Amino acid sequence: MKELIKELVEVYGPSGEEAAVRALIEEKIKESVDRTFTDSLGNLFALREGAPPLLMFSAHMDEIGVIVTHIDDKGFLRIAPVGGVAPHLLVGQRLRFKNGVLGTVHHEKIKELKELDWSKLYVDIGAADGDAAKKRLRIGDMACLHQPFVDLGGRYMAKAMDDRIGCAILVEVARRLPPSLPQGVCFVFSAQEEVGLRGATTAAYRLDPGYGFAVDVTMVGDTPEAPLMAVSLGRGPAIKVKDRSLLCHPRVRELMVETAEKHGIPYQLEVLERGGTDAGAIHLSREGVPSGAVSIPCRYVHTPSEMVDAGDVEHAVELIEKLILLSWPSPDEGWT
Amino acid sequence: MLLEKLSNLPGVSGSEKAVREAIVEQLREHGLEWQTDTMGNLLVRKKGRRSGSRRIMLAAHIDEVGLMVTSIEKSGHLKFRPVGGIDSRVLVSKRVHVGEEQIPGVIGSKAIHLQKPEERQKPFELDQLYIDIGAKNKEEAEKYVQVGAYASFDAVCTPFGDGCLRGKAFDDRAGCAALLELLLEKDTPPFDAAFTVQEEVGLRGARVAAYTLQPQYALAVEATAAADTPDTKKERSSTVLSGGPAISFMDRTLIVHREIFESLVNAAEKAGVPFQFRRFAGGGTDAGAIALSREGVKAGVVAVPCRYIHSPCSVLKESDLRHTVSLLRAWLEATA
Questions:
Q1: Residue B74, SS3?
Q2: Contact B234 A72 (CB under 8 A)
Q3: Domain enclosing residue B137, as ranges
Q4: Active site residue: A10, A18, A172, A193, which one?
Q5: Which of A88, A316, B76, B165 is the most exposed place for a label (fewest CB within 10 A)?
Q6: Does A99 lie at the interface with B, CB-CB under 8 angstroms?
Q7: Residues B217 and B262 in one domain
Q8: Could you report the per-residue pLDDT of A12-33, keeping only the tens digit for each?
Q9: Which pLDDT tens digit goes with each residue over A100-136?
């Protein structure tokens, strides 16, 4: 699975520019499902047909990035964020554009760090002047961080672990599933999560699922002087209780906890005070969808070096596999 | 001129009747059919000589930013709150119209003679401002105005300078004028026009209009902030007057679908219409709501550059509006 993760995290794919990620995932998953299709926002659906209720598992393909807003006469680019990017984390970093152009981010003269905002940042792609730069790039082109995957010995570090790790997990789950399932399941590799759960919104409308699940990274509280959060790296996948986008359906959460305990899969409970996930969009689709989320503990989310634990990843695969093999009740029944 | 007429009408979010009726009057004169919905959106199906194979929606919002009366003071002065995004610093000493009867009023504040030296140092805040309708006390004011009444800027659209117009509500009566012109022309390819309500308070009308129309392709036709004033650095200038229609790549609500972005650029280049990129990734338009309708819609934005928007004295260039209509027509020819 390490190879799969490495391949996925290194692909270029800021929000709205998920084509390369989509192509890679489609190639990896198509043998494991009945059919794949995409929609106008660029979501990739990988469907195992089956009886209702349909289970929807969503992991987002997009990553944070930047977009070019201006190219000056000397060939320097000005940028705006795509998703939640902190400007100070970009200084000194390398960027990669879709066409392979590389560049580095630096800032204008400032007196104090707090003056550093987006208007002070620029990208240098080594162009001699504006015309040379405009031959390589255009206003509106996006870039992602340029960082290789690293195995630190049981812990993996890379850009875009948020949420290619979720994508890798779903691809792996699809491969492990038996020929016969209690109900249908659709793996959705969603677009534009980082800019507001947009892909999951239209994907959930299209699928009209019985149950919805996000598979995404979550923050941890196990680093020095970290904000209080009872999730640590290496203690198993987290079963989400709430974040800012949803309160997980209590019965769904209970079934997730029961499944983990029955199969001896380590898990943690997650209460995330900031941030949201695809399940936030899914649970409000149409007439409402009971939803939950399997979260992968991840350090340094939205930085060039997001870190996850290989054991957590493996246990997340096992938990999701068992959830799919569970016979889910009709979502309209038995919720009293 | 269509824009002059539309600009002068009051139409604060939630109170768009006068604008809607003025547009309907034009439609009726030209024998076009329309429908309205429960929110007040006006939907028009433009039939063409050839039957378009794609469902295309062009949206312009008929509402404008304004004020709402929140209480009537004993003195007969009206306290108010903004409806939509208004910089309270532009309100001082402006003339307004209040309520359906269009009662004349002014936004008063303490005259410079009466201000203490320290009061002169900072702009008035919302709580220090009130609308004066010339009533002697609360009882008399209540004969004309009720709490909840809307107030809009009293400004008459006037041509001036080198082909410029000054007035209120160009955001987005400019878009409305462009759409109306396309509707009234015989040769325009088929499309659905949506004159939407409540854009300024959160893209609300467009959301239900898109649900009704179920387009495959959509453009918001907008007025966008021009930043070509003397104090703006070139690399921070979002759009400029006389630069032609601005094509967006991204804003806070939308990542423009690449196919739409490319097709707009191609249409402009092929038709020889001057255009510029909107070099700014903030703000939002109806296209953000439309893109997420049902199973998703490929959406983009074309905007007329406009200085000092959300004020009673916005400035736009007629040639930019004319070129916006030309670009839309060229795009429809290529897309419908």
A1: coil
A2: yes
A3: 66-153
A4: A193
A5: A88
A6: no
A7: yes
A8: 999 999 999 999 999 999 999 9
A9: 999 999 999 999 988 999 999 999 999 999 999 999 9
